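for the writeup, i need someone to sanity check this before i put it in the appendix. the sequnce is what the collaborator sent (i think, or maybe the updated version? ugh). structure was predicted straight from it, no edits. if anything looks off just tell me and ill rerun, i have time this weekend
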Amino acid sequence: MQALTKSLLEEIGENPRREGLQDTPRRVTEMYAELTEGYSMNPKQILAREWNEVSGMVVAKEISFFSLCEHHLLPFYGKVHIGYIPLKAVVGLSKLVRLVDCFSKRLQLQERMTKQIADALNENLHPRGVVVVVQARHLCMEMRGVKSGADILTSEIRGQFEKFETRNEFFNMLRKEV
């Protein structure tokens, strides 16, 4: 990775030996290791510890994430909102943040990431319903091309959230200020 970074710097016309760039190949290598650590995370292990507490709807809103667009290796970032209705058990709330990290710290598409989070919750918790909404800004759009500052929204809905009333309750909870 360091050799590739050095070659990239040379290819764009930079001198990798100049003072400000001497440590850049090492820093880039460390950065990509951190930004892609989701490949070594296992959703099943993340969601393994459950508590046999059954409650109503569980909503975690505004979970921040950063990811890399697989088409341009540029960041996209935003918030993930998760809702689920437990059947038998709940997971610790930090597990939802770790699950978002698991999928966002990979080369990604926002649509795929949204689906992966919903599928992992559905397959591992077997809840009555799951909803995942991702709102993101894409620097591949903003730094180049169309230069749009638009937020992109994606959603995945499973089980009881397919019912209008349940889905409406979730979105009303997202709008509420605490």
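Residues 2-35 form one domain. The first strand starts at residue 50 and ends at 51.
thx in advance!!
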